[in-house]
Design brief:
Layout (H helix, E strand, L loop, with lengths): L1 H19 L56 H10 L8 H14 L1 H4 L8 H4 L18 H10 L13 H18 L26 H9 L14
Helix pairs in contact: 2-6, 3-7, 6-7
Bound molecules: heme C.
Amino acid sequence: MRSLFHKTIGFCLLGFAVVSCHDKGDPNYQYMPDMYEPIGYEAYGEYDVFENGQEAKLPVEGTIPRGWMPYDYQNNPEDAAVAKTDLKNPLPYTQDNYVEGKALYTIYCAVCHGDKGDGKGILVEREKILGVPSYDDAGRAITEGSIYHVMYYGLNNMGSYAAQTTIEERWQIDHYVMSLKDKLEGKPEREYVEETGEPTQLLPSRADANLYDDAGDMNSDQENQNDQTETQE
Ligand code: HEC
């Protein structure tokens, strides 16, 4: 009994001696270090063999990410004027596009511009924001192109919608805004065109727009499950 008691104390002291020597600041022993330290380069690692010493590289200037399209107009008054006259809605005026545009408009725009587009949204009525124009404002004479441009870049108190919406969604909203403008001006309703099923090239000015075909092939399995796989800008 006595000897067992002594042995226990002896083991405890030995255990303390071993554990207490370990410095917590030092790395501990590694079992199979290859599992922790990869042999390949780490994506954001620092290595002398690379220019600037870093593995991660910036894309080459002028690189266009897959599924993204550059917008040809800059954010300045000259380009805004050209977009206003030249930029046309590439989406056909189908009922689907109209309905989708209306839903998106109600989400993003109606709080300020109002359900009718008369500039009397809830935020205006509560005087949270001022200077929201009606879409039939003669001085502005908005067009398909100018609506798209203002959604892309925003204008003074109105923010940009380039990050929240895809190219297609912006053009759908565009159709709906034009329909509100027509209604405010008392014009007859525009007739829908039939759905052809043909894919639409969303920015007519770009020659290399077949980027979309590739993206479509890759995502075709998921497309129905997840709308977000569609082409984003
Ligand atoms: C936070 C409130 C707010 C929201 C939300 C908003 N707008 Fe505006 N919008 C404004 C204001 C304010 C102006 C006037 C800007 C100016 O001329 O200084 C404006 C102006 C416009 C114009 C006229 C631009 C021109 O050429 O003179 C259009 C078209 C327009 N908005 C469309 C939209 C669309 C489409 C959406 C939704 C995607 C939207 N707006 C969302 C506040 C808003």
